[in-house]
Amino acid sequence: MLLVKLGGSILTDKARLRTPRKTAIARLTKELAGLGDDLLVVHGAGSFGHVLARRYALNGPAKSTKAKGAAVVQRDVRTLDAFVIDGLLKAGLAPVVLPPSAVLGLDDGRVVSFDVAAFRDYIYQGFTPVTFGDVVRDRTRGVAVCSGDILMLELAKAFHPRSVVFAADVDGLFTADPKRTRDAQLLLSVGPADLAQLDLGPAKGADVTGGIETKVRRMLEIASFADETIIVNGNVKNRVRDALRGRIVIGTRVVGGH
Ligand code: IPE
Q1: CA of residue 132 to ligand 1 center, whole Å
Q2: Domain extents for the chain?
Q3: C-alpha of residue 223 to centroid of ligand 1, in Å
Q4: Counting Cβ atoms within 10 Å, is residue 179 exposed (0-12), middle (13-18) or buried (19+)?
């Protein structure tokens, strides 16, 4: 089993509301075909999710007014998902959409229900399940944001994939933000003991699903359920494909406490 997350920052222009990067989507979906193993695809929301989720405070406390904002964002993330599905179909795969708003429930941000059987049954029938960062029901908050990373963890727990690949818009994890710090160094691997040496600044821009620290902690947990976990640059042609094929590629290996 292979598990991949296509980050919202490669699928969209994160600074402009609802702006897909169509060329990147077409290329990346093509890279996911012909891998010779079952595949689960998760993708981020980028500017189809973060901008309005923040404006409507969808991660905040329960309020009767949240439903309408949630419905708009749910519609928007499905719009982005349709571009991904289109690419996967053109690449010759049989994608099936399993929207978190239908298959997952939270309580104060923590997962309390997840329909793993839907994923398992479709895989068995030769489909490629696709899911994404979404707005879902939450027992405490009414609705809340469910990031693609939360789905990665649930799927890793359920399927113990051979390989997990996170496609980011940089080469991997750096000692500091490579877009702001010139001498930021790429980390070839990261484990639980390395958390302290990272400059885990606050999330920049409109990211509503937590900063880098939440992300790295979750990746370490995901890695503990997989044989190999790596963060690679999805903007570099064939890097995601090669990582999924088990080739040695530039990136950051995530080593969880097995
Ligand atoms: C965010 O999902 C979901 C919403 C804001 C609705 P992700 O956190 O997985 O998305 P990216 O990869 O950062 O864009």
Answers
A1: 8
A2: 2-254
A3: 20
A4: exposed
The reported pLDDT for the residue numbered 213 is: 84
> pTM for this one?
0.96
Residue whose Cα lies nearest atom 3 of ligand 1: it is: 133
User: Which residues in the chain come in under a pLDDT of 50?
Assistant: none
In tens, the pLDDT along 31-44 reads: 999 999 999 999 99
The CATH number given to 2-254 is 3.40.1160.10
Separation CA 159–CA 115 (nearest Å) = 13
Task: Kindly give the number of the ligand 1 atom that is closest to the alpha carbon of 146.
Answer: 3
State both tokens at 35. Answer: 């891998």
**Angle, helices 212-223/148-159, rounded to nearest 10 degrees:** 10
Q: Bridge-partner residues for 130, per DSSP? A: 41, 97
pLDDT value of position 123: 98
What is the residue with the minimal CA distance to atom 10 of ligand 1?
44
Q: What is the pLDDT of residue 194?
A: 85
